[in-house]
Amino acid sequence: MNATVAEAIAMRDVFISETARLLDDNPRLALVLADISAGEGRFAQAGVDHPDRVINVGIREQLMVGVAGGLALAGLRPIAHSYAPFLVERAFEQVKLDFGHQGTSGILVSVGASYDWSEGGYTHFSPRDVALFDTIPGWTVHVPGHPDEVTGPLRAAADSDESVYIRLSNRRNAEAHASPDGKLTVLKRGGQATVVAVGPMLDNVLAATADLDVTIAYAATVRPFDTQTLRELAGTTADTIALVEPYLAGTSDHIVNAALTDRPHRLLSLGVGREDLHRFGTPDDHDSWHGLDPAGIRASLSKFLSV
After folding, report:
1. Is beta strand 163-167 parallel, antiparallel or unpaired with respect to 107-111?
2. Is 269 helix (H, G, I), strand (E, B) or coil?
3. Tens of pLDDT along 246-263?
4. Three-class secondary structure of residue 182 per DSSP
5. Residue 98 to residues 69, 124, 175, 244, 301: CA-CA distances in angstroms?
6. What's the CA gap between 272 and 249, in Å, rounded?
7. How far apart are CA 227 and CA 222, in angstroms?
8. Domains of the chain with CATH codes
9. How far, rounded to the nearest angstrom, does the alpha carbon of residue 213 sit from its chain's CA centroid?
10. Rounded to whole angstroms, what are the CA distances from 91 to 55, 107, 139, 255?
Protein backbone atom coordinates (compact mmCIF):
# COMPACT_ATOMS: atom_id res chain seq x y z
CA MET A 1 0.00 0.00 0.00
CA ASN A 2 1.24 3.50 -0.76
CA ALA A 3 2.22 5.77 2.10
CA THR A 4 -0.10 8.48 3.31
CA VAL A 5 -0.07 12.01 1.90
CA ALA A 6 1.40 13.34 5.14
CA GLU A 7 4.40 11.05 4.80
CA ALA A 8 4.70 11.47 1.05
CA ILE A 9 4.87 15.26 1.04
CA ALA A 10 8.59 14.78 1.60
CA MET A 11 9.01 14.34 -2.16
CA ARG A 12 8.14 17.99 -2.77
CA ASP A 13 10.07 19.03 0.35
CA VAL A 14 13.19 17.44 -1.13
CA PHE A 15 12.64 19.32 -4.37
CA ILE A 16 12.20 22.68 -2.60
CA SER A 17 15.27 22.27 -0.38
CA GLU A 18 17.49 21.01 -3.19
CA THR A 19 16.39 23.74 -5.60
CA ALA A 20 17.20 26.39 -3.00
CA ARG A 21 20.69 24.93 -2.65
CA LEU A 22 21.15 24.79 -6.40
CA LEU A 23 20.12 28.44 -6.73
CA ASP A 24 22.82 29.34 -4.21
CA ASP A 25 25.48 27.37 -6.07
CA ASN A 26 24.56 27.88 -9.71
CA PRO A 27 24.19 31.48 -10.96
CA ARG A 28 22.79 30.18 -14.25
CA LEU A 29 19.74 28.61 -12.57
CA ALA A 30 16.41 30.45 -12.32
CA LEU A 31 13.10 29.50 -10.70
CA VAL A 32 9.70 30.54 -12.04
CA LEU A 33 6.56 29.98 -9.97
CA ALA A 34 2.85 30.67 -10.31
CA ASP A 35 2.11 31.19 -6.61
CA ILE A 36 2.22 27.46 -5.78
CA SER A 37 5.04 26.93 -3.21
CA ALA A 38 6.23 30.54 -3.59
CA GLY A 39 5.87 31.36 0.10
CA GLU A 40 7.10 28.04 1.46
CA GLY A 41 10.26 27.95 3.58
CA ARG A 42 13.34 27.70 1.43
CA PHE A 43 11.61 29.10 -1.66
CA ALA A 44 10.59 32.24 0.25
CA GLN A 45 14.17 32.75 1.39
CA ALA A 46 15.51 32.00 -2.09
CA GLY A 47 13.32 34.81 -3.41
CA VAL A 48 14.98 37.17 -0.93
CA ASP A 49 18.49 35.90 -1.69
CA HIS A 50 18.10 35.80 -5.48
CA PRO A 51 15.37 38.29 -6.44
CA ASP A 52 16.59 38.43 -10.04
CA ARG A 53 16.41 34.64 -10.49
CA VAL A 54 13.32 33.69 -8.45
CA ILE A 55 10.20 34.97 -10.20
CA ASN A 56 6.60 34.53 -9.05
CA VAL A 57 4.20 35.49 -11.86
CA GLY A 58 1.06 34.90 -9.82
CA ILE A 59 -1.71 32.51 -10.84
CA ARG A 60 -0.74 32.62 -14.51
CA GLU A 61 0.64 29.23 -15.46
CA GLN A 62 0.89 29.91 -19.21
CA LEU A 63 2.91 33.03 -18.42
CA MET A 64 5.08 31.03 -16.02
CA VAL A 65 6.12 28.61 -18.78
CA GLY A 66 6.49 31.44 -21.29
CA VAL A 67 8.76 33.36 -18.91
CA ALA A 68 10.79 30.19 -18.33
CA GLY A 69 11.21 29.81 -22.09
CA GLY A 70 12.31 33.44 -22.36
CA LEU A 71 14.87 32.97 -19.60
CA ALA A 72 16.21 29.95 -21.47
CA LEU A 73 16.58 32.08 -24.62
CA ALA A 74 18.55 34.55 -22.51
CA GLY A 75 20.99 31.84 -21.46
CA LEU A 76 19.61 30.88 -18.05
CA ARG A 77 18.56 27.41 -16.95
CA PRO A 78 14.93 27.75 -15.80
CA ILE A 79 12.92 25.55 -13.45
CA ALA A 80 9.12 26.01 -13.63
CA HIS A 81 6.98 24.40 -10.95
CA SER A 82 3.28 23.90 -10.27
CA TYR A 83 0.56 21.26 -10.11
CA ALA A 84 0.75 18.89 -13.08
CA PRO A 85 -2.54 19.91 -14.76
CA PHE A 86 -1.56 23.59 -14.62
CA LEU A 87 2.09 23.12 -15.59
CA VAL A 88 1.55 20.66 -18.46
CA GLU A 89 -2.06 20.59 -19.66
CA ARG A 90 -3.00 24.23 -19.12
CA ALA A 91 0.32 25.54 -20.41
CA PHE A 92 0.96 22.94 -23.09
CA GLU A 93 0.93 25.48 -25.91
CA GLN A 94 3.76 27.33 -24.19
CA VAL A 95 5.67 24.08 -23.61
CA LYS A 96 5.23 23.27 -27.30
CA LEU A 97 6.18 26.72 -28.61
CA ASP A 98 8.46 28.37 -26.04
CA PHE A 99 10.57 25.27 -25.51
CA GLY A 100 9.99 22.81 -28.35
CA HIS A 101 9.60 25.19 -31.30
CA GLN A 102 12.15 27.72 -30.06
CA GLY A 103 14.72 25.00 -29.49
CA THR A 104 15.30 25.98 -25.87
CA SER A 105 15.42 23.70 -22.86
CA GLY A 106 14.43 23.83 -19.22
CA ILE A 107 13.19 21.86 -16.24
CA LEU A 108 9.51 21.41 -15.47
CA VAL A 109 8.70 19.97 -12.04
CA SER A 110 5.13 19.07 -11.18
CA VAL A 111 3.24 17.94 -8.09
CA GLY A 112 -0.16 16.35 -7.81
CA ALA A 113 0.50 13.47 -10.23
CA SER A 114 -2.71 11.91 -11.57
CA TYR A 115 -5.03 12.38 -8.58
CA ASP A 116 -2.96 13.03 -5.46
CA TRP A 117 -5.21 15.88 -4.34
CA SER A 118 -8.43 14.12 -5.22
CA GLU A 119 -10.50 16.42 -3.01
CA GLY A 120 -9.53 19.25 -5.37
CA GLY A 121 -11.65 17.64 -8.08
CA TYR A 122 -11.07 17.00 -11.77
CA THR A 123 -9.30 20.33 -12.32
CA HIS A 124 -6.40 18.92 -10.28
CA PHE A 125 -6.20 15.55 -12.05
CA SER A 126 -3.49 15.03 -14.65
CA PRO A 127 -3.14 11.45 -15.92
CA ARG A 128 -2.37 12.68 -19.47
CA ASP A 129 0.83 14.62 -18.79
CA VAL A 130 3.42 12.03 -19.82
CA ALA A 131 1.44 11.19 -22.96
CA LEU A 132 1.55 14.87 -23.91
CA PHE A 133 5.33 14.97 -23.57
CA ASP A 134 5.52 12.10 -26.05
CA THR A 135 4.24 14.51 -28.71
CA ILE A 136 7.32 16.74 -28.37
CA PRO A 137 10.67 15.10 -29.12
CA GLY A 138 13.64 15.28 -26.81
CA TRP A 139 12.13 15.41 -23.32
CA THR A 140 13.56 13.32 -20.49
CA VAL A 141 10.84 12.27 -18.04
CA HIS A 142 11.45 11.12 -14.47
CA VAL A 143 8.72 9.60 -12.31
CA PRO A 144 10.22 9.17 -8.82
CA GLY A 145 8.61 6.65 -6.52
CA HIS A 146 10.38 7.78 -3.35
CA PRO A 147 11.75 11.09 -1.97
CA ASP A 148 15.31 9.75 -2.22
CA GLU A 149 14.84 9.45 -5.99
CA VAL A 150 14.31 13.21 -6.49
CA THR A 151 17.71 14.78 -5.83
CA GLY A 152 19.76 12.86 -8.40
CA PRO A 153 17.58 13.67 -11.43
CA LEU A 154 17.15 17.28 -10.30
CA ARG A 155 20.89 17.88 -9.93
CA ALA A 156 21.60 16.20 -13.25
CA ALA A 157 18.93 18.31 -14.94
CA ALA A 158 20.34 21.52 -13.46
CA ASP A 159 23.79 20.69 -14.86
CA SER A 160 22.54 19.71 -18.32
CA ASP A 161 21.10 21.48 -21.33
CA GLU A 162 18.32 18.93 -21.85
CA SER A 163 14.58 19.39 -21.53
CA VAL A 164 13.51 17.54 -18.38
CA TYR A 165 10.15 16.84 -16.77
CA ILE A 166 10.14 15.58 -13.16
CA ARG A 167 6.76 14.25 -12.01
CA LEU A 168 6.56 14.44 -8.21
CA SER A 169 3.85 12.63 -6.28
CA ASN A 170 2.35 12.46 -2.82
CA ARG A 171 2.40 8.69 -3.33
CA ARG A 172 5.54 6.77 -2.51
CA ASN A 173 7.06 3.35 -2.18
CA ALA A 174 8.52 2.16 1.10
CA GLU A 175 12.05 2.15 -0.33
CA ALA A 176 14.01 3.85 -3.09
CA HIS A 177 15.06 1.60 -5.98
CA ALA A 178 15.84 3.94 -8.89
CA SER A 179 18.97 3.25 -10.87
CA PRO A 180 21.20 6.35 -11.15
CA ASP A 181 21.70 5.73 -14.87
CA GLY A 182 17.97 5.59 -15.62
CA LYS A 183 17.97 1.86 -16.32
CA LEU A 184 15.33 -0.60 -15.19
CA THR A 185 16.01 -2.05 -11.75
CA VAL A 186 15.27 -5.78 -11.54
CA LEU A 187 13.82 -6.64 -8.12
CA LYS A 188 12.61 -10.18 -8.74
CA ARG A 189 12.98 -12.82 -11.44
CA GLY A 190 10.36 -15.27 -12.62
CA GLY A 191 9.32 -17.16 -15.71
CA GLN A 192 5.71 -16.26 -16.57
CA ALA A 193 5.93 -12.57 -17.43
CA THR A 194 7.93 -9.37 -17.09
CA VAL A 195 6.04 -6.82 -15.01
CA VAL A 196 7.33 -3.24 -15.24
CA ALA A 197 6.20 -0.98 -12.37
CA VAL A 198 6.62 2.76 -12.86
CA GLY A 199 7.33 5.15 -9.99
CA PRO A 200 4.91 4.97 -7.05
CA MET A 201 3.13 1.92 -8.50
CA LEU A 202 5.92 -0.41 -7.34
CA ASP A 203 4.71 -1.31 -3.86
CA ASN A 204 1.22 -2.13 -5.12
CA VAL A 205 2.76 -4.31 -7.84
CA LEU A 206 4.99 -6.10 -5.33
CA ALA A 207 2.00 -6.79 -3.08
CA ALA A 208 -0.05 -8.03 -6.03
CA THR A 209 2.65 -10.40 -7.32
CA ALA A 210 4.21 -11.69 -4.09
CA ASP A 211 3.45 -15.34 -4.92
CA LEU A 212 3.50 -15.13 -8.72
CA ASP A 213 6.30 -16.50 -10.90
CA VAL A 214 7.05 -13.18 -12.61
CA THR A 215 9.97 -10.84 -13.13
CA ILE A 216 9.52 -7.41 -11.54
CA ALA A 217 11.39 -4.43 -13.01
CA TYR A 218 11.17 -0.89 -11.68
CA ALA A 219 11.32 2.29 -13.76
CA ALA A 220 11.75 5.80 -12.34
CA THR A 221 13.01 7.22 -15.65
CA VAL A 222 10.47 6.58 -18.41
CA ARG A 223 11.77 8.80 -21.21
CA PRO A 224 14.02 7.59 -22.56
CA PHE A 225 12.71 4.15 -21.64
CA ASP A 226 15.28 1.42 -21.01
CA THR A 227 14.24 -0.76 -23.93
CA GLN A 228 17.50 -2.70 -23.98
CA THR A 229 16.91 -4.19 -20.53
CA LEU A 230 13.24 -4.66 -21.35
CA ARG A 231 14.15 -6.75 -24.42
CA GLU A 232 16.54 -8.86 -22.35
CA LEU A 233 13.98 -9.49 -19.60
CA ALA A 234 11.09 -10.11 -21.97
CA GLY A 235 13.13 -12.71 -23.79
CA THR A 236 13.28 -14.79 -20.59
CA THR A 237 9.49 -14.66 -20.05
CA ALA A 238 8.23 -15.62 -23.51
CA ASP A 239 7.87 -11.93 -24.44
CA THR A 240 4.91 -11.58 -22.08
CA ILE A 241 4.91 -8.08 -20.58
CA ALA A 242 2.70 -6.19 -18.16
CA LEU A 243 3.20 -2.44 -17.75
CA VAL A 244 1.79 -0.70 -14.66
CA GLU A 245 1.93 3.10 -14.92
CA PRO A 246 0.60 5.79 -12.52
CA TYR A 247 -0.82 7.82 -15.41
CA LEU A 248 -2.99 7.15 -18.46
CA ALA A 249 -3.20 3.44 -19.27
CA GLY A 250 -1.31 2.64 -22.46
CA THR A 251 0.93 5.71 -22.35
CA SER A 252 4.07 3.66 -23.01
CA ASP A 253 2.54 1.02 -25.25
CA HIS A 254 4.10 2.52 -28.37
CA ILE A 255 7.57 2.31 -26.84
CA VAL A 256 7.22 -1.31 -25.73
CA ASN A 257 5.73 -2.36 -29.06
CA ALA A 258 8.47 -0.57 -31.00
CA ALA A 259 11.15 -2.20 -28.85
CA LEU A 260 9.73 -5.65 -29.59
CA THR A 261 8.55 -5.08 -33.14
CA ASP A 262 10.75 -7.91 -34.41
CA ARG A 263 9.32 -10.42 -31.90
CA PRO A 264 5.80 -11.68 -31.25
CA HIS A 265 4.77 -10.46 -27.80
CA ARG A 266 1.82 -9.98 -25.48
CA LEU A 267 1.31 -6.72 -23.58
CA LEU A 268 -1.00 -5.87 -20.69
CA SER A 269 -1.27 -2.14 -20.00
CA LEU A 270 -2.52 -1.00 -16.61
CA GLY A 271 -2.92 2.63 -15.61
CA VAL A 272 -5.47 5.37 -15.08
CA GLY A 273 -8.59 4.88 -17.17
CA ARG A 274 -9.90 7.42 -19.66
CA GLU A 275 -13.38 7.73 -18.14
CA ASP A 276 -14.19 10.79 -16.02
CA LEU A 277 -15.52 9.07 -12.91
CA HIS A 278 -17.07 12.25 -11.46
CA ARG A 279 -15.85 11.19 -8.02
CA PHE A 280 -13.66 12.79 -5.39
CA GLY A 281 -12.71 10.11 -2.87
CA THR A 282 -9.14 9.55 -1.73
CA PRO A 283 -6.09 8.63 -3.80
CA ASP A 284 -6.47 5.07 -2.50
CA ASP A 285 -10.07 5.10 -3.74
CA HIS A 286 -8.91 6.15 -7.18
CA ASP A 287 -6.29 3.39 -7.20
CA SER A 288 -9.10 0.95 -6.52
CA TRP A 289 -11.49 2.46 -9.09
CA HIS A 290 -8.80 2.28 -11.78
CA GLY A 291 -7.66 -1.22 -10.83
CA LEU A 292 -4.29 0.02 -9.57
CA ASP A 293 -4.56 -1.20 -5.98
CA PRO A 294 -2.97 -4.61 -5.20
CA ALA A 295 -6.28 -6.45 -5.61
CA GLY A 296 -7.00 -4.82 -8.97
CA ILE A 297 -3.51 -5.42 -10.31
CA ARG A 298 -3.62 -9.04 -9.15
CA ALA A 299 -6.98 -9.64 -10.83
CA SER A 300 -5.80 -8.16 -14.13
CA LEU A 301 -2.52 -10.07 -14.08
CA SER A 302 -4.17 -13.37 -13.18
CA LYS A 303 -6.62 -13.03 -16.06
CA PHE A 304 -3.83 -12.03 -18.47
CA LEU A 305 -1.57 -14.92 -17.46
CA SER A 306 -4.35 -17.49 -17.66
CA VAL A 307 -4.95 -16.90 -21.37
Report:
1. parallel
2. strand
3. 999 999 999 999 999 999
4. coil
5. 5, 24, 37, 32, 42
6. 5
7. 10
8. 5-167 (3.40.50.970), 185-306 (3.40.50.920)
9. 28
10. 17, 14, 16, 25
